[in-house]
Amino acid sequence: MKRFHVHVAVDDLAANVRFYTAMFGIPPTVEKSDYAKWMIDDPRINFAISQRGLAAGIDHLGLQVETDDELTQMRAQVGKAEIAALDQTNASCCYAKSDKYWVTYPQGIAWETFRTLDSIPVYGNTVREQPAEKAPCCAPAATIAMQPAKTGACCS
After folding, report:
1. CB 9 within 8 A of CB 50
2. Span 104-130, average pLDDT
3. Which of 28, 99, 123, 128 has CB 3.0 to 4.6 Å from 36, enough for a Cys bridge?
């Protein structure tokens, strides 16, 4: 089953943790000095915030899947539509190790589709080709040439 994902950059983590804890009625599932995440079941959402020096606002959107088959199926849909994508396997970001791919929708917001493999003790990083202040937290930089998927291909 898929889970909608939203990651918001914030300028005051503590204030936002208090706000979203009140909004969702539960404390964060993961809380670090620069990051917090709520895994909510109704509605199914992975909502994350981070304070890492980026402009406040929507950082990226996405879908979290539970199985390799779901990730393969979603990636095949992107390939069939000839949407440029960047595959990342065993990526370290947001205190998690994940297999994922990124696309950028026409208005310029990054979309991440991912399967979480494990938690890790550090925020992690993703190599970027543009300055961090212009790139979403874990998303590929706009300057990275993304290639359309081959029909039926996935996560290589």
Report:
1. yes
2. 78
3. 28
